[in-house]
Amino acid sequence: MSTDEQLLQTLRAALDRTDPMPEAIRAAAYAAFAWRDIDAELAALIADSAETPIPAGVRTAADHRLLTFRAPGTEIEIEVAGERLRQLTGQLVPPGPASITVCWPAGSLAVEADDLGRFTADNVPPGPVSLQVRRPSAARPVSTDWVVI
Amino acid sequence: MTDQSTSTLVAAARAGSREAWHALVDRYARLVWAVIRGHGIGGMDAADISQTAWLRLVEHLDRLRDPDQVGSWLAATTRHECLRFLNRRGREHVTESLPDHPSVEPTPEEHVVAADRDRLLAAALAQLPPRCRVLLRALTSDPTPSYAELAAALDVPIGSLGPTRSRCLARLRELLAALGHEPDVESAGSNR
């Protein structure tokens, strides 16, 4: 009978051989530092419809996901749709125009929110995204928490 | 930089040091990865969750209440992202996905037994409850996480880790025995 330590050691060796962390994972983590932006105000994710487990077999709820981010004085609501490329439909609260950049690790897309604070962004690749919102009246841009869509 | 304290690395990264950031990644990337794989997530989904955890840390670097606990913060953030992903998939019972890049190199005769043992261990690990998979994967990550980091990865009190670890390893032994395997004999040839 081996000790727990020996069994863990055997497991460690097996996982090192069969399921090591790909180097691309480390490289992507290194690269994340390039996104550091000390000017932006953080809009934290405060609600995600994906937090609620979806019963097996129910598909409609999974097709539209609602995300809400909040920074002091601003909320950003986003609906995510699309099977492959995503379509984002957003609403700023309080409503008003803004320049919005949808960022993902390999690129970005600039869109405008109208006077009612509505915006859409098409063909966003699935994966991590963050939105940068710049209202004409605000001193600082707002960046949302990164979230996987 | 690798022997610096975690809070020193966080302070240097806050000041813009890429070297310090890389040292933080080297210290915690495997813990983040272990939590994701322990939840049975692989492929692009695993890559997305890992990168999201690190991107979040970049954003939150200046807001961390306790820079020494950045490992726990990462473990908890990663766990949360895994649960969010699994909920979105509506998959309540997820079995561990296979490694992305299983070893395909030709196996010399003396490695056959080791490869068999690896497969059996992987099969047994996949049958463990998620909590055990996360704990055992985290325990075998490099460097070995602190108790606080393990507790954050599982969202359990530190005091429960010891008993949980014993239970999970006992269960792993049972599964290996059921698979007809003597788990802890390292010498080739004595298997079966």
From TrEMBL, chain A:
Upper lineage ranks? Answer: Bacteria, Bacillati, Actinomycetota, Actinomycetes, Acidothermales
What name does the UniProt record give this protein?
A: Uncharacterized protein
Highest taxon, organism lineage: Bacteria
TrEMBL record, chain B:
Residue ranges occupied by any RNA polymerase sigma-70 region domain in the UniProt entry? 24-91
Annotated coiled-coil positions are: none
Gene3D superfamilies (alphabetical)? 1.10.1740.10, Winged helix-like DNA-binding domain superfamily/Winged helix DNA-binding domain (1.10.10.10)
Keyword DNA-binding attached:
yes
- List the Pfam families hit by this protein, alphabetically: Sigma70_r2
What are the record keywords, sorted? DNA-binding, Sigma factor, Transcription, Transcription regulation
Biological process, per Gene Ontology? DNA-templated transcription initiation
For molecular function, the Gene Ontology terms on record are: DNA binding; sigma factor activity
Stated family: Belongs to the sigma-70 factor family. ECF subfamily.
* Protein name, per record: RNA polymerase, sigma-24 subunit, ECF subfamily
Species of provenance = Acidothermus cellulolyticus (strain ATCC 43068 / DSM 8971 / 11B)
The opening ranks of the lineage are: Bacteria, Bacillati, Actinomycetota, Actinomycetes, Acidothermales
